[in-house]
Specification:
420 residues; alpha+beta; four-stranded antiparallel sheet; 11 helices; 48% helix; extended
Length: 420
């Protein structure tokens, strides 16, 4: 049934982005829908003594009257709600909560429904800010650290046979749970791990013990269980047997011209240093730009405060917080409470960027998307059509559009303020 223009709609605003509709459907529309529900039911029914589809109306009412009325009310409420949203131009971001349904046969049907809508931002100030671009110079120590990582990546590994491993050594470890008598726990299989000492890959108790074992040796100890539901130090300790199966020590190549030639197209170590420094400079410039952008949007948010719908914040938290099944609900609630301020901050920034793009016509065009794809293709030596197909298949094409839009928004905002 199509709800006609006689539908009555009253709108209230209990909260900033909440809307409450009180909707009245004329009795004749409700009765028409009730007859349709009864007719469709009669066509499906086959009762003893009656041909299929020929059940008299009075028999239907006696046997199925309450069910017919319930389905009628559900259909009328759903259709009237959708029509009210269309007529008023409302776009809920939360499920409408229907309440206060009032109906008696022969009378108008009235109900209320409450939901939240997407914020409509009124951005009165977008510029006139002063933002300092902070970009520290690249120190020699930073270049040295990168070169040291490159040496570690090109290290050769010497097997340790009759010595204990030290920080930086690679180990293969087998850990077996023990019972109260110090015997391997029934049904519990030993687990094997690969651990580089000194990098925080294992808990301190295990790392300390490994530094005391030679390959082939084992020792029993106790460790705190690692669980998400209970802080380790508040749990009882568990006995385990730790066996060091293998250990290797990295031997780093000398930092010279031969090393530089081995890691890339560099004739000398100085050329490699220059490339490392240039890469670090580029990264520092990028980080400085990100900080300027971040600060600009924060200033716009601060200059144009607005409330967020609870439904929008909750939906965001649902996406970013996905606790494992079985986690204590109170713990989940605490996690959501802690994460809520960050979620609200991220949403405000996102809404401001979207609103500026809308107001100033800064959304990415297809030509700009094509240009960006061509740039990516040239950078990776691939055909533009192949890059587009890959982005489409990976679901990244829309993210690329958003990236271009954000770049345009930030360029626009920077033009309205002073970047020092």
């Amino acid at each position: 049934m199509a709800v006609d223009s006689n539908l009555k709609i009253a709108i209230e605003q209990p909260r900033t982005w909440a809307r409450r509709l009180t909707i009245t459907v004329p009795a004749e529309h409700v009765e028409h829908e009730r007859r349709e529900v009864a007719r469709r039911l009669a066509q499906r029914l086959k009762l003893p003594g009656f041909r299929k589809g020929k059940v008299p109306a009075d028999v239907l009412e006696r046997r199925y009257g309450p069910a017919i009325e319930q389905e009628t009310v559900e259909r009328v409420v759903g259709e009237a709600y959708r029509e009210a949203l269309r007529r008023e131009g409302l776009h809920p971001i939360s499920q409408g909560a229907v309440e206060e349904v009032e109906y008696r046969p022969g009378t108008d049907l009235t109900f209320a429904v409450e939901f939240e809508v997407r914020p409509e931002l009124n951005l009165s100030r977008l510029g006139g800010f002063r933002v300092k671009r902070e970009r520290a110079p690249i120190a020699d120590e930073q270049v040295d650290r990168v070169l040291e990582r490159l040496r570690e990546e090109h290290a050769t590994w010497r097997t340790i046979e009759d010595a204990t491993p030290a920080s930086g050594d690679f180990t293969v470890v087998e850990i077996s749970p023990l019972d109260a008598e110090g015997q391997p726990r029934t049904g519990a299989k030993p687990r094997r791990y690969q651990i580089v000492l000194g990098e925080g890959q294992a808990i301190p108790e295990i790392e300390q013990l490994l530094g005391q074992l030679r390959p082939g040796e084992e020792r029993d100890t106790v460790v705190p269980p690692q669980t998400e539901e209970q802080p380790p130090r508040e749990s009882r300790e568990e006995p385990v047997r730790v066996r060091l199966l293998e250990a290797k020590h990295p031997e780093l190549p000398p930092l010279d011209d031969d090393f530089a030639r081995g890691v890339g197209e560099f004739d000398t170590l100085d050329a490699l240093r220059a490339r490392v420094r240039a890469d670090l400079e580029r990264e520092a410039d990028g980080e400085a730009e990100r900080q300027v952008r971040h600060r600009l949007v924060d200033l716009v948010v601060e200059a144009n405060p607005f409330e967020l719908p609870d439904a929008m914040v909750n939906q965001y938290l649902d996406r970013v917080l996905r606790p494992r099944e079985g986690v204590d609900p109170e713990r989940v609630a605490e996690m959501r409470q802690v994460a809520r301020p960050g979620a609200e901050h991220a949403l405000r920034r996102m809404l401001v960027i979207e609103r500026v793009a809308e107001l100033e016509g800064l959304r990415a065009t297809e030509e700009e998307v094509d240009t960006r794809i061509a740039e990516l293709a040239g950078r990776h030596g691939r055909a533009a059509a192949d890059v587009r197909a890959h982005l489409q298949k990976a679901g990244r094409l829309e993210a690329l559009r958003e990236e271009i839009t954000e770049d345009k928004v930030f360029d626009y905002l920077k033009g309205l303020s002073t970047i020092e």
